[in-house]
Amino acid sequence: MKMSLAQFQDAFTDALYQRPAPQLASLVAQPGFEVYRNTVLKGCVDAICDNFPAVERLVGHDWLAAVAAIYACHAPPTDARMMFYGGDFADFLEAFEPVRQLTYLPDVARLDRLWLETFAAPLEPGLRLDELTGMTASDLARCSLRPRENVRWRWFAGQPIYSLWHCNRQAQALPEPLPWHGEGALLVGNADGVAWQPLQIGECAFLDACAAGQDLEHASDHALHVQAELDFNTLLGRLLAAQVFAPLILPA
Predict the structure, then answer these.
(1) How far is CA 243 from the centre of its chain?
(2) Which of 54, 177, 192, 219 could bridge 168 with an S-S bond, Cβ 3.0-4.6 Å?
(3) What are the φ and ψ backbone dihedral angles of 160, each rounded to 5 degrees?
(4) Contact 148, 239 (CB under 8 A)
(5) Average pLDDT by consecutive 10-residue portion of the chain (252 residues)?
(6) What does DSSP assign to residue 188?
(7) What is the CATH number of the domain that holds 196?
(8) Which ranges of 60-195 would DSSP assign to H, the alpha helix?
(9) Distance (Å, rounded) from C-alpha 215 to C-alpha 41?
(10) Are 62 and 160 contained in the same domain?
(11) Burial level of 97, CB count in 10 A (0-12/13-18/19+)?
(12) Which domain does 236 fall in, by range?
């Protein structure tokens, strides 16, 4: 059967990842094809191990490599830039039966993925403190603070995901004992790489509100509704120091 170039490429990809490709049966039967298949698969496995270092340290290289090979057959790369490979790997882990008892592992994978997104995002100018000079409290309350493109955050309910991720990412021992409660994480890209710090639930809620376009007054009210004891002034100072926000969006 004569195939178009697109049909051949699709069938070739299927054959590489051990899916049925009857149109290429004679090609697949050649000994050299298995070498090519193994080379491609190894590239996918290596990319997953490189892209999810905290997961790898938690479960070990051999375990992750075996799971990555299964994932690669399920989800081959769609982008030649392998640092972006594994976009849904955390979701795959969540549905993977051998991981069911490791309830924290998918969220650790999500934090590894957020690190990659933060690292790869374009740098943009941050909010300078001198932009706030001369503004009254009323002026500031009506301003919107937009998180920069290379900033990521997330709240993980019920499990100390940030501590697990941070310690394994840094190859550090976990604290003893490790309090088992929800934690949030903030990742900020800069010229030197990616910086990170823990967040409380109200702090994550504040950033969610800012990203949704709420002004400072409404975003802070939302954060305090979620976490009444939140020290908002300390939070704002910490976020400004970390260069979380883009230059001010002044009200019309």
Answers:
(1) 19
(2) 54
(3) -80, 60
(4) no
(5) 66 64 66 66 94 97 96 88 96 95 97 97 90 83 92 97 97 92 97 96 98 95 96 93 87 58
(6) E
(7) 3.90.930
(8) 61-74, 89-95, 105-120, 137-141, 161-169
(9) 48
(10) no
(11) exposed
(12) 120-252
